[in-house]
Design brief:
mainly beta; Immunoglobulin-like; 3 domains; about 10% helix; binds 2-acetamido-2-deoxy-beta-D-glucopyranose; Cu-oxidase_C; copper ion binding
Length: about 550
């Protein structure tokens, strides 16, 4: 590590240790330590003060800067008055679903206690974010960026930018997160967003300092993530085009865009040249596909500028044909560093035989008059004992049953079945998953534990014929993808990461109301080569309290 990174890290209040001495001796990857105090605070983001979730007093939370393969250690002190968990959106946690931080993989961190996460971003060079995963916490902030840079010697397909900024954009609601959860529990919707925020600001305070400053003639990297809960956003910068270079850990073919749609839960990186007349320029994020569009703007200032930004903010694109076409233009750079061969030893995922197709049709219905969402007629509900723990301790009886949902949607929409939704996938098989969204509103889906190839999307119902339209060559390998209204999206992936993995809607209302499931991928070898043992500090709850540890997995 260079002195400069050490100093920068220390200045940012992060304790960075090159490696514990013993670790160096064993050639272990460097450690990066964080200590987070999670509290409520009051912020006025839109019109009135409201309760938000702060990390070390900050909103958004501190950025996690690290290199691929670093050991990230985050000791979370829950100073809220309710249980808390953090999930690391897009981090694959190879062999380690223990650290995924969802109700299905981990017991909640009780108020007044702490829990230490430990995970490694393995070969994932790019932009990600974290957020609190329980209830509607995500609507109260508590999120922050994760940027993973390449270790030295692994080339990145562009010159180092002059600086690198996280741009966290998301819709925002003036209701308290607990009130939002209560509305959903009562069967009501919390409606449309009240505004949009960018790095925790609504752009309404004229006195706000610029979001960041640039030097004329230099190039900057912006890591843009939609950390919101419902609205797709369009992002653009007055007078500046953006060169797309990275998406959720994959280097893309570098095309120019004047605006980009960023759907909920998605992240991408662009390079922006400060090549315009020095002055102030607005970066703008505005909602897409919903009535009463909302937007936010933030100033990017050329160093020394005293010229205010022009009030003429560029218009967002209209309609979703534009958006789907833009999606089609995103391609993976197959020769860039982060591209990794699949287990079959080639980049040609299009030539691997599919062993199983899972069609996941979004279901919506009412139970006792209350709105629920699900997939294929099953609406997920969390169990008191996390599913991963129940499986590890072999006490699934009375917690959940595997495969309550079938691989094809029911022919007729019957009543929704509300249970923990856990399906099994055979270790290392190559599977196609089709998401179908018959709803009038946008969906965005996410898969934990994996990057997948987003190969196709189109309007209407999916049929096997649609496979002819797939991009079987250079679809971007990523962890989230949008599903347009009354449309389908197809992905492909190899289930080579043992664990219990959440598949979910990023639209948090849908997620909260059951549009999620877990995929249990078990390595029959029970070997440390394939999966880690439960960590020693794992919290216990439900049926696994006091149980003796099951036999350890075999040495690799
Ligand atoms: C809680 O924090 C202390 C240090 O303050 C640490 O020693 C302990 O391991 C943490 N607890 C858990 C469960 O991670
Ligand atoms: C892809 O990456 C390679 C290797 O880093 C780079 O030379 C090339 O310019 C990139 N191609 C495109 C189209 O972005
Ligand atoms: C993270 O890295 C970026 C780019 O190098 C830097 O500007 C920022 O200050 C760093 N943040 C922290 C918290 O280390
Ligand atoms: C895929 O399936 C086809 C037809 O069933 C077979 O001929 C081919 O060898 C298989 N390819 C691989 C890589 O397994
Ligand atoms: C799990 O428990 C069941 C009985 O509940 C038993 O039949 C089975 O052998 C156990 N499996 C393992 C791997 O211990």
């Amino acid at each position: 590590m260079t002195t400069t990174t050490r100093v920068a890290a220390a200045a940012a209040g992060v304790l960075l240790v090159a490696a514990a001495l013993a670790g160096v001796a064993r050639g272990e990857d460097p450690y990066v330590f964080f200590e987070w105090k999670v509290t409520y605070g009051t912020k006025t983001l839109l019109d009135a003060p409201q309760k938000v979730i702060l990390i070390n007093g900050e909103f958004p939370g501190p950025r996690i800067n690290c290199s691929s393969n670093n050991n990230i250690v985050v000791n979370v002190f829950n100073q809220l008055d309710e249980p808390l968990l953090f999930t690391w959106n897009g981090m694959q946690h190879r062999k380690n679903s223990w650290q995924d931080g969802l109700a299905g993989t981990q017991c909640p961190i009780a108020p007044g206690t702490n829990y230490t996460y430990k995970w490694q971003p393995k070969d994932q060079i790019g932009s990600f974010f974290y957020f609190p995963s329980l209830g509607m916490h995500r609507a109260a902030g508590g999120y922050g960026g994760i940027s993973v840079v390449s270790r030295l010697l692994i080339p990145v397909p562009f010159d180092p930018p002059a600086d690198d900024h996280m741009v966290l954009i998301g819709d925002w609601y003036t209701k308290d997160h607990a009130a939002m959860a209560k509305m959903l529990d009562a069967g009501k919707s919390f409606g449309r967003p009240h505004g949009v925020v960018i790095n925790g600001k609504s752009g309404k305070a004229a006195a706000d300092p610029p979001m960041f400053t640039v030097e004329a003639g230099k190039t900057y990297r912006l890591r843009v993530c939609n950390v919101g809960i419902k609205a797709s956003l369009n992002f653009r910068i007055q007078g500046h085009d953006m060169k797309l270079v990275e998406m959720e850990g994959s280097h893309t073919v570098q095309d120019m865009y004047d605006s980009l749609d960023v759907h909920v839960g998605h992240c991408l990186s662009v390079l922006v040249d400060a090549d315009q007349k020095p002055g102030d320029y607005y970066a703008v994020a505005s909602t897409r596909f919903i009535h009463e569009a909302k937007s936010v703007s933030a100033v990017i200032r050329y160093s020394g500028s005293s010229t205010p930004p022009s009030p003429a903010v560029p218009e967002p694109p209209a309609g979703w044909a534009w958006s789907i076409n833009q999606w089609r233009s995103f391609r993976w750079n197959l020769t860039a560093s982060a591209a990794r061969p699949n287990p079959q030893g080639s980049y040609h995922y299009g030539q691997i035989n599919i062993t199983r197709t899972i069609r996941l049709m979004v279901s919506r219905g009412h139970i006792d008059g209350k709105l629920k969402y699900g997939f294929n007629g099953v609406s997920h509900v969390d169990a008191e004992t996390p599913l991963k723990l129940a499986e590890y301790f072999n006490v699934t009886d009375g917690v959940f049953r595997y495969n309550q949902m079938t691989d094809v949607p029911p022919a007729v929409n019957g009543p929704l079945h509300v249970v923990p939704n856990v399906i099994t996938a055979e270790f290392r098989t190559f599977i196609e998953i089709i998401f179908e969204n018959p709803e009038k509103s946008m969906d965005s889906v996410h898969l934990d534990g994996y990057a997948f190839f987003a190969v196709g999307m189109g309007p209407g119902k999916w049929s096997a014929e649609e496979r002819k339209t797939y991009n079987l060559l250079d679809g971007v390998s990523r962890h989230s993808v949008q599903v347009y209204p009354r449309s389908w999206t197809a992905i492909m992936l190899t289930f080579d990461n043992a664990g219990m993995w959440n598949v979910r809607s990023n639209i948090w209302e849908r997620h909260y109301l059951g549009e999620q499931l877990y995929i249990s991928v078990v390595s029959p070898a029970r070997s440390l080569r394939d999966e880690y043992n439960m960590p020693e500090n794992a919290l216990r709850c439900g049926k696994v309290v006091g149980l003796p540890l099951p036999p350890s997995y075999l040495p690799a």
